């Protein structure tokens, strides 16, 4: 009888120890990162949401071919974290490069600011991720966790003549994109997406 109790206690101790060790191996970050740093998953979701907001889906193709006759510069206004010495943020530079890529795909000539004939003004209303996490029993010892990510990008584009400030597009373009991802782990196995 005593041997059975002793072997039950040893077994219970071994199982609990294994769960504790395995649960901590895949524990996600529980502290807030710096404002300018994002995980690779968050960056991928933001990139996809931004491209979706610019009409990457076949039903919402953005008509930028109207700008082909002009040399175009892109200017981005972005709500974002810190600015570098040039006065623009990482988010603003990223949005500018994605818009420029989109314009180039349509055959538009992109020039540096100051030598443009037309200007595409981009107002970024939303660009970021929301993260929701559930841990059991605790964030520092998650035997099970479930994290959901939601990236959102919302932009408005205006195109106008650089000299006369006359609009080149009859209506401004408004686009919104959203991407979601989920991640979970059970007893140290995973993370699974």
Short description:
It is built from three helices and six strands. It has helices at 2-25, 40-53, 90-105, and strands at residues 71-78, 109-110, 118-138, 141-161, 173-186, 189-192.
Describe the protein's architecture and organization.
The chain is built from 3 helices and 6 strands. With 193 residues, it is an alpha/beta fold. The protein has one domain (2-192). The protein has a 6-stranded mixed sheet with strand order 2-1-3-4-5-6. A hairpin with a 2-residue loop joins strand 3 and strand 4 (141-161).
Keywords for this entry:
193 residues; six-stranded mixed beta sheet; alpha/beta; 6 strands
Give the strand tally. 6
What oligomerization state is this entry in?
Answer: single chain
Q: Termini distance?
A: 47 Å
Counted by DSSP, the helix tally is 3
Overall mean pLDDT score? 80
In which range does the helix fraction lie?
Answer: 25-40%
Radius of gyration, CA atoms, in whole angstroms: 25 Å
What is the spatial order of strands in the main beta sheet?
2-1-3-4-5-6
Q: Which range does the strand content fall in?
A: 35-45%
Q: Provide the domain count.
A: 1
Task: Tell me the structural class.
Answer: alpha/beta
Order of helix and strand elements from N to C terminus: HHEHEEEEE
Inertia-based shape? rod-shaped
The description of the largest β-sheet is: 6 strands, mixed
Unreliably modeled segments: 57-61
List the helices and strands and how they pair.
Elements: H1 2-25, H2 40-53, E1 71-78, H3 90-105, E2 109-110, E3 118-138, E4 141-161, E5 173-186, E6 189-192
Parallel strand pairs: 1-2, 1-3
Antiparallel strand pairs: 3-4, 4-5, 5-6
């Amino acid at each position: 009888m005593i041997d059975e109790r002793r072997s039950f206690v040893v077994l219970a101790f071994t199982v609990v120890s294994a769960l504790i060790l395995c649960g901590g191996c895949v524990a996600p970050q529980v502290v807030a990162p710096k404002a300018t740093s994002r995980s690779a998953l968050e960056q991928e979701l933001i990139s996809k949401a931004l491209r979706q907001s610019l009409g990457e889906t076949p039903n919402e193709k953005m008509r930028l071919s109207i700008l082909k006759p002009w040399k175009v510069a892109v200017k981005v206004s972005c709500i974002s974290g810190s600015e570098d010495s040039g006065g623009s943020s990482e988010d603003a530079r990223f949005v500018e490069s994605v818009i420029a890529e989109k314009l180039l795909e349509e055959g538009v000539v992109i020039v540096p600011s100051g030598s443009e004939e037309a200007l595409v003004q981009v107002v970024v209303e939303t660009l970021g991720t929301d993260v929701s996490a559930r841990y059991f029993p605790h964030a520092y010892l998650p035997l099970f966790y479930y994290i959901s990510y939601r990236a959102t990008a919302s932009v408005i584009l205006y195109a106008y003549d650089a000299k006369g400030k006359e609009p080149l597009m009859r209506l401004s373009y408004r686009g919104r994109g959203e991407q979601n991802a989920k991640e979970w782990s059970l007893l140290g196995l995973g993370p699974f997406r």
